[in-house]
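Crash report, auto-generated. Payload:
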Amino acid sequence: MRGAVVLFLSVYLLRALVAEVNSALSGAHVWIFAGGLFLAYASLMATFRQGLAVAVLAGLLCDALAPVGFGTHAALFAVAHSLVYHFRERLQREETGVRVAVALLVNIGLFAALSFARIRVLPAVAAAWPRLLSDLLISEGAIVLVAPWFFALQASTLELARAPTERSL
Amino acid sequence: MALKSLSRASFFEMTAPISAAGSYANDLQRFWALRLHSKDELIEAGRDLARLDASYALSVQQNGELQAEVERLQALLKMPPLEHFRFEHARVAQRDFSGWWQRMIIRKGSDYGIPVGAPVVYSGGVVGRVSEVHAYTSVVQLTSDPGLRIAAVVDGDTRPISFQGALNQVFGAPRGAIEFVPLDVYASASVPKRLATSGLGGVYPPGLTIGRITHVESSEDGLFKRGEVELDPRLGELTEVTVLVPLDPSS
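Recovered output after restart:
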């Protein structure tokens, strides 16, 4: 369980950093969504239970700060974790490039799911897509830049905390 | 339901110290940046402030007289008294401007008696309304948020129209949309009209600026018009806002 706590703390730190960046970029109406990055490492490297715990806790953290039904992010993150866990044995998951690609794909899936969940609130649906697409593109760019550092941070903190993941067992 | 609310509040409070710490760090950075100004600059700024202070002191006197006159007329006409507010100034801890919602977290919550639904204003007009109150922070739903609706009036008109936050494109000014606009109201980007709160609905006091109507067109049914409102670009960069806390808790 120590592994799940360490991974969740790293996600907590990343979420705080993303929130600060979003706050700084608010004047330009640019917004970064990094849901895929929150759970990519845990889904690829941790045991199913550890990964699920991280995904649900990270989802609840996002839910608490967003005007969506409490549990929306948590449910989406849990589904995404289950899917990635199911397919991970077919991937070269030790490779950073593969991890980044998984984070990008999961991020697209989560962003699309949240967009469909929120679209009914928007006054002009057709006009909403350019903004949502630009947010998604900027988010993907940010993930490409940050993901290698974040994965290294998660691996180092797990090592420091002597918390084994499935791969190191 | 109670468990859900408790979990939500607990997770929010987990993030609150980080948001507040970032905001305090920004304040400290600004403080040390101001310390670098020369004494001459400070003397000049003090002189300007003294002039402003004098003109505001005059406005306060005039305001007091007008307030007394309003109260006399209210008593004469046996009108219900206007709602009174306490001004609670608060620093902005974090802003969240996604395509789905626009909100900000302020550094005052139930510790300062901020109630849910209280209007939030700044020098440019309406910022939004308090949507969540936590122990030391509150969440403000902004006027540009698609989930926020306000009963508004066009400057110089008394007929109410409906304002809703709209889409905010990247690098563009925040925008809103209006519905149920009377057919004889005209506005364009070259001749915009001021949109203000109507006072209906009991949340916002009347006369506060929401934005400028830059476009109106007939709606599909032809009974009303609909249009676009340009909001103040400063909405995305605010560092301090004022919460209007009703003095009568029942209101």
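Post-recovery validation: The longest strand of chain B covers residues 85-97.
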